[in-house]
Fold this protein.
Amino acid sequence: MFEQLKKDILQQIESVNDLQQLEKLRVALLGKKGTITEQVKSIGKLPIQERPAAGRVLNELKEEIQRALEVKREELMKIEAEKLSKKMWVDITLPGIRRRVGHRHPIMKTLEEIEIIFVSMGFKVVEGPEIEDSWHNFDALNTPEWHPARDEHDSFYLDSFLLRTHTSPVQVRTMLSAQPPIAIISPGRVYRRDYDATHLPMFTQVEGLYVDENVSVAHLKYTLEKFAQQIFGSERRIRLRPSFFPFTEPSFEVDVSCGVCGGKGCQACGYSGWLEILGAGMVHPNVFRNVGYDPEKWTGFAFGMGVERITMLKYNIKDMRDFIRNDKRFLENF
Ligand code: PHE
């Protein structure tokens, strides 16, 4: 009795291979309208003397089916768990995902270095407007109408104003609002109509001004040599070459000895042994007069350098335009 049914059912259970299917089968067998449930219900239709035997057999069958279902369920659960743990496996020996941290632009790094050097010598950092009037940018600095920098081909004009061509007007503004002794540097952006491998239309300057009694070229030379040694290396020397600026007299171009050949002359310095780093000079008496200082009493030196140029010399960069191309492969070298 029920032998064939039992065999079929056990085989069905055996052939199931996922948990959902197994649950469906359980309902089909033991649910309210399941095969076995229906069989149990139909016992009532049997003759009374056959009922106990049929009941016992069906009960045993039901229990056996339940056991088989349970065994199968455990088997499938184990397979599922293994699958899941494979899927979630983490290789803790793999390198992590690096969070990339930004950094300062090379020009800003050099600028900060320059500032620290001069601040450590007692200079104060002063800033001023990038849009200037021509009086602060030119006239006060003894730069007459005929000077080429005043030409529209060399400067950017905005109506009666212009984008400052140097940070010297900050020195004018400082002298107008304070009395000597004065020791300042003025860093900032400046603008000129230039664009090639060694000139940008917008670049960064640091200018310096020292005004006191009895200031001489010796003070200028000492200060700038100490600066050059700190930024380029203690073995460096500087030299002054005569030059011209309307706002200084005498004026100089300042060179630093070549770091590659030590001054003997090589390809890096064009076989001269020297590299030009900045312009400087003793403040012209007319500049003092323009800001209300007595030129008989006060003397001073001033200097101005391009931060891009200093950075190019420091890292041997050939094209100034690299600083503004925003190419991370370049910028990440600093
Ligand atoms: N202002 C000059 C320039 O921009 C630099 C300079 C400053 C030269 C001070 C001499 C003295 O080129």
About this structure: Residues 166, 168, 207, 245, 248, 279-281, 302-304 surround phenylalanine (CB under 6 Å). The chain has eleven helices and ten strands. The chain has two domains: 2-88, 106-331.
